Amino acid sequence: xxxxxxxAIYRRLxxxxxxxxxxxxxxxxxxxxxxxxxxxxxxxxVLVVFGRVPVLAGFSLTDTLLVFGLSSLGFSLADxxxxxxxxxxxxxxxxxxxxxxxxxxxxxxxxxxxDVGVRRLGRVCSAVVVLVIAVRLAQVPATPANLLLLVVxxxxxxxxFSAVFVATATVAFWWVDSGELSAxxxxxxxxxxxYPMTVYGGWFRHVLxxxxxxxxxxxxxxxxxxxxxxxxxxxxxxxxCGPVLxxxxxxxxGLVWRTGVRHYRSTGS
Length: 269
Known about the structure:
12 helices; mainly alpha
């Protein structure tokens, strides 16, 4: 009998995780609902802000909803695919990482399939709904270029946020209690990209938007979709740079991860 391929092994592990989570139907349904509520709470924050001011840093509610929708869908896809890697500190502390290292499979892929976040599908679906509504409210023209950008931007955002998840989780190889740092960059980055960059100022905007690349996740693509120039004076072609930035971020995250694995020393747990 032929041995199953590596891909077949991962498929079986993912299928087992899905069956395991779906077997407790009430709990699974509540998990799905809670993820919808979480996105709803973020959306409510935007609505509350615009309940007090008609325009925020030069952007209306419909403009901001488009930025929010692009950012939320990209982050939700990344959270669904690799979000459980933010438990890296626990894996190191409990010794689970040591057990994974001696198995003949990729370390990162094993950790990702250990707890596939099927329950996060609720957040992805609600993010799609928010983005579709935002596109309709902003009256984005249905040109081929705009439709392509609406597909490419969330995918590139998902790759970018996945790279951030993996790169920040790698810090746990050297600093076990690095959870707050990881959360600050992943969830903080999501919050940063949910609003137009003109909301932020000074060094904070330059570091997160250009130094770390968060400005290319949603803000610049949204400017193209809204057919408006950048109030900060940047050229419009920056809106198409998201996939390039995401590819660079993925390569860097992979290098950081491999370096961490090579230099990892067991905690002895």
